[in-house]
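Progress report, Aim 2. The chain analyzed during this reporting quarter is listed below.
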Amino acid sequence: MKKEIFKVGIVGMGPVGMILAVHFKLAGCEVAICDIDKRKINLIRKEGIELVGKINKNAYFKHIYSSIPELMEHKFDLLISSVKAYHVDAVLDQIEAADHQDLHLLCAQNGIDIRMKYQSHFKDSKILRMIVNFAGNLNAPNVVNVTFFNPPNYIGSIDDSNCGLAELVADILSSQDLETKNADSFKIAEEAWIKTILNAALSPLCGISAHTMKEAMANPDTLEIVEQIIMEAMEVAKVEDVIFEKNFAKLCIRYLKNAGNHFPSLAVDLLNKRETEIDYMNGKIIEYGRKHYIKTPINLVFTNLVKAITHKNLIENHSKDSFLDKE
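Predicted structure tokens for the chain:
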């Protein structure tokens, strides 16, 4: 009897979405991809997706869409969301409207409590969460420069009711050397905190100071700030029952000192005057700090500065668009 081909849909062709798409395709899955950037989609149709840098692979795709309603005409074993946090609600509204009763969703996004957006639309038993430990930036709309992969990734059912599917997905990705481990919901929550602390330590600092990660870690003044962000976040996380390995703060610094000479995702968004995911990084550290009456002044400064800059940028962008509309 012929084995059923595992069917995967992926919404969002940023670096994470494209890296996942290539690995699922090379593993023999039927992969349907979706992004609203028509230039990107047209390039993928013609040239496929190429990964360079730390991972060198490429793949071509048959099922390529520029809207979620079109994508949802497909049937999937798993639908992956790899969009920015501020796009999640709009994406989930469209997915929900398709009324796929047996649909399972995988949230391939970092950040604390991002799962809550998914829980507001779908049952816990239908939701999986992935802790992504790779990243990249775009050399071209369809070419990802994979800047690092620190294995493993983690994937798990958010209520531990669907461990079989999580294990299957982990095995598929691991078969293509994208090492991924199945984990229970408690491990996933813990790893979400750890990954967020690493992201929060550099992302807003790089965006506001226009330092690359390598530059920020090489400068003693900015390095001191990074250390303080980590220490504040750890104090909060410990009260949330996150257990850190010995010398965690020092290991964070060692890890971040290996960062490349480029900007993290949030910094790229801020520098390009787009919305950011600060609410799910440093913003969550502040929120949980307040819950436990723990002050987080460094995280507060960076969160509020990022929000203030973003607010100003969005007003300026809106004014510019309004002016162009009148011409």
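The longest strand covers residues 134-140. The chain has two domains: 7-183, 190-317. These observations will guide the mutagenesis work planned for the next reporting period.
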